[in-house]
From TrEMBL, chains A, B:
<dbReference type="InterPro" id="IPR036388">
    <property type="entry name" value="WH-like_DNA-bd_sf"/>
</dbReference>
<dbReference type="InterPro" id="IPR000595">
    <property type="entry name" value="cNMP-bd_dom"/>
</dbReference>
<keyword id="KW-0804">Transcription</keyword>
<dbReference type="InterPro" id="IPR014710">
    <property type="entry name" value="RmlC-like_jellyroll"/>
</dbReference>
<dbReference type="Pfam" id="PF00027">
    <property type="entry name" value="cNMP_binding"/>
</dbReference>
<keyword id="KW-0805">Transcription regulation</keyword>
<feature type="domain" description="Cyclic nucleotide-binding">
    <location>
        <begin position="11"/>
        <end position="131"/>
    </location>
</feature>
<dbReference type="InterPro" id="IPR050397">
    <property type="entry name" value="Env_Response_Regulators"/>
</dbReference>
<feature type="domain" description="HTH crp-type">
    <location>
        <begin position="145"/>
        <end position="218"/>
    </location>
</feature>
<protein>
    <submittedName>
        <fullName>Crp/Fnr family transcriptional regulator</fullName>
    </submittedName>
</protein>
<dbReference type="InterPro" id="IPR012318">
    <property type="entry name" value="HTH_CRP"/>
</dbReference>
<dbReference type="InterPro" id="IPR036390">
    <property type="entry name" value="WH_DNA-bd_sf"/>
</dbReference>
<keyword id="KW-0238">DNA-binding</keyword>
<dbReference type="Pfam" id="PF13545">
    <property type="entry name" value="HTH_Crp_2"/>
</dbReference>
<dbReference type="InterPro" id="IPR018490">
    <property type="entry name" value="cNMP-bd_dom_sf"/>
</dbReference>
Amino acid sequence: MTDDVLRRAPLFSGLDDEAAGALDASMTPLTLRRGEVLFNEGDDGNQLYVVTDGKIKLGRTSPDGRENLLAILGPSQMFGELSFFDPGPRSATATAVTDVDVRSLGHEALSPVLREHPDVAMALLNQLAGRLRRTNEVVGDLVFSDVPGRVAKALLDLASRFGRKADDGVHVNHDLTQEELAQLVGASRETVNKALADFASRGWLRLEPRSVVILDLERLQRRAR
Amino acid sequence: MTDDVLRRAPLFSGLDDEAAGALDASMTPLTLRRGEVLFNEGDDGNQLYVVTDGKIKLGRTSPDGRENLLAILGPSQMFGELSFFDPGPRSATATAVTDVDVRSLGHEALSPVLREHPDVAMALLNQLAGRLRRTNEVVGDLVFSDVPGRVAKALLDLASRFGRKADDGVHVNHDLTQEELAQLVGASRETVNKALADFASRGWLRLEPRSVVILDLERLQRRAR
DNA sequence: TCCAGACTGTGACTCATCTGACAACCCGAA
DNA sequence: TTCGGGTTGTCAGATGAGTCACAGTCTGGA
């Protein structure tokens, strides 16, 4: 049920059922098709969103048109908070990677909640701190790791969030093209393709369209460091 | 007065004089010499710090010993908040770049303030969101820009925070060795040195030990993009 | 005042990654 | 069933930046 998905969002932690219900009621549901854009880098807007189903990608475009993905977000994850807490134009473009359902929340609706429920503010601080931690990690990876290492790391991250364990390995339906995967790790599609092919030839994983099956988690983890 | 410096910290915005005084009183002052380490990556600890004088660098070390700087912090700036809001080991090492004065604050002292002053929580959310924005920007730069571009950008950032305008240009006493500057932009010392030498030969800036004078802000800005 | 150690400046060599250029493939829509 | 666009797989250069290896310079202590 999408209600469960919502309740699992950090935004709702620390709220009793009544308050959660009230907050939920003030959110607007929204559906997008794969490829549709929710908002663009540079847009105004202070809505905050929670994914209830599907995946969203957050990306930035360089002056010369190349693209870089900051994150892939799945159910229960929040985005759009930057312009929400630090008013200003959106710093990234949000695009649907699959068909998606999201809920949006305006500034007016959340502010009173933050005032009355300090726990929610704490949960959000916690959430942002965690996000900052992970982003710092990404910076480190870009500086220290080579492309195959970053690809391995990205696959493991996707696996931990979207993977399903099966007899033959961990099935990761990431829904990303190799082009998108490349933008996510900050490399060219060709180089990422070679890294994937290499992993596959070593028997660490099996490639499928927009999906991989991880066969040897151990080695992939070792390659990621 | 250091009190002014403190009051300018986001932590204190939204507090009336009384509350600010109380919070101030619960902070412990601390002095470090250039090179001294305040805390290490991996340490436990949930203190939050505010710089009152001097500069602190936050850095991470890769498994093979190379180093990467996440930020250079000056007066009024806060750090150590990650382990504060998202309990866990410190994700970076904090080292004094110059002799420094800082104030530290324990979790026990701030929690009640957050509960009673929602404005402070909002200011902190705002602060973290801003930090996240800038870190995302850094990720983009690492992916899109070459080393000279990143060096130019770093110099401009340092100039905006530590620069003093004079007749012959903007004097930026960054107090960083070229090695540190290189770690900040994620490049080798040699490459950074060459970029700086190139900028100097074009007349965009004049090199001084641990300091630069920016002579042509315009061009440097253009090179940064 | 002198020295040692830490910084800065610069070259030659190497290598990972990007670029550009194709061929092969797959799947959905006419 | 066939066509076409969006994918995936590979190759042969080109190149930015890292590493190594010095020499020159500055600076703070003894």
